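Support reply, case 0932

Customer input (verbatim):
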Amino acid sequence: MALKKVAKKRITKKAVAKSGRKTSPVKKRTAKKAASIASPQSASPVSILEKELLASQIKLGKAHEKATAQCEKEVAKLKTQLVKAVAKHALQKERKAAATKNHNEKPTRATKTRVVRANEALQAAGAAIKSIRAALQDARSAHAEAKKAHKKSNARDKLLAGFEREWTKAATKKRKPVRRVRKASASAAEETGASTEAEKAAAG
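Our regenerated output:
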């Protein structure tokens, strides 16, 4: 009885081991095969480069637009600063004139100090005007260059778009049907030859 029990235990363990085997690798392999069959063909390197080139051209056009707009904003900002600097310079000039007049009328140490300070403020306002004018000139030059580059980019894009349209039109154009003249002439010659032979037979 003990031997029978031991044998039954071994049989049940073997059955459990067989039933507990993993089948996941087989499923993974079949899934990989199905995925490889269902996946579309990868794009060619040429088509990938063409898409990247088109995307780069679009980005380049947007970059030119952004650069032109930034240069235009810079020019407008410097113009505003120049107007304010000129107005400040005029005000400092009036203050210096008033301080000089007051010092000439009542020369004291305080009036002299006011004249010195007014002169320093006037010189600083003049230096600010020179600096702003130089920056404005550089900004105008940069704006002109940006506009030229943008114009060139737009012209190139238009030419390329026109070329693509013409190329597509020529590629999709239907071919004209070619008439077979030789076969028609040959069949006509055969018919005339047969008619002449029939006429000779009738005459004979």
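We compared this against your earlier run and they match. Two observations from our side: The two ends are 124 Å apart (CA to CA). Helices lie at 2-19, 24-38, 45-105, 109-172, 181-203. Please reopen the case if you see a mismatch on your end.
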